[in-house]
Each structure stands twice: as structure tokens, then as C-alpha cells.
Amino acid sequence: MDGTFVRTDVTVEDDVAALFSAAYDTYGSVDVAFNNAGISPPDDDSILDTGLDAWWRVQQVNLTSVFLCCKTVIPYMQRQGKGSIINTASFVAVMGAATSQISYSASKGGVLSMSRELGVQFAREGIRVNALCPGPVNTPLLQELFASDPARAARRLVHVPLGRFAQPEEIAAAVAFLASDDSSFMTASTFLVDGGISGAYVTPE
Questions:
Q1: Which residues form the signal peptide (predicted)?
Q2: How confident is the model at residue 143 (pLDDT cuts 50, 70, 90)?
Q3: What is the CATH number of the domain that holds 78?
Q4: How many structural domains does the chain have?
Q5: Which of 14, 16, 88, 93 is the S-S candidate for 112 at Cβ 3.0 to 4.6 Å?
């Protein structure tokens, strides 16, 4: 597959600037930004057990990186009069969980709120900003959770009405939709792709 790879620490402002500069210099425009970096380390747990180091590390990767990427890419999109930004939040941004990851949840709530505000602020300039809110996705991170704590993983799975976790390709299809002109009348949106979790009171037996 053709493409350009730019090694980037998305928590470092100069790295982010170099990333979007390389994209613009290579392709002549920056039409889409998909801001998807995120971590969920085991030391991010209940508020009673999570230390400040864990709190700040998650905030930096999950929330500050989105701030830096949006701040850097929006001027490119302003000059060309169009663009689509997709920021990965999470279904936990709209729900509470007793199995808490306090910094992760707070960071994703921040991504959701920031995306909504930017979507409104820059709408008249042709720039759309939407928050993608996936449910649990069958990725190595989730597989590690299954391996290390099957009971905790099973407790999460029971709340998914569709009875399974998402496949990465299903989330990629949602990103492609939000990036495309098919979603041209969508901005400041909370786009849930969560298998029905956020709409469920009880799930089928």
C-alpha cells in the first residue's frame, strides 16, 4: 500500500507540526485528520487507586494529543476551505462504568466535548469535526485484557446487545464514512459505533 510514514510522538508539539507539514508537502492538501492515539494502562483504575503519574500519562496521550493535532491541522484546512477531522472518543464518554478507568474515561469525555466545540466553531469555514465513539474493539489491547483478567472482560461483554466486540474493520468503515462526502452534513456529532451498549438497559439473554 502506498503512503507516507512520519514517526511522531503526538504528545510533542514539534512532532505534530512536522507530521502535518510532511502531509501537506507530499500531497498538497490535508483533507482528513483521524486522531486516534490512545492508551489504557492497568494502573489507570478506580479514582481511589490511580496515581497522578498514571492520570497525566493517559491525559497526555488521549486528550492533549487530540488538542495538538486539531490545533495544528485546522489552519491547513482553513486555507483550503474544507476538511474533515475525526477524533476518537469512546462510548465511555457518554456512560459511566463501575469497572472504572478514571483517567481514560475523563480523557474521552474531553475529546467528545472538544470535538463538539470545534465542530461548531469552524463549521462555516467548511471544516467538519466529529467524535467517533466506539464500543470495545477486538484489538491486541482487548485481547490482553481477556488474557490477564477474563472475568473483567466477560463482565464487559455481557453489556453488548450484539453479543460481541467490534472488529477493527467495522470501526475503520465508520471512519471512512465520517471522512467522506457521504457525511457532508455531519459536524459536532457524537457518532456511536458501540454494538448498542449506550442504548441498552438490559441485554438479550
A1: none
A2: confident
A3: 3.40.50.720
A4: 1
A5: 93
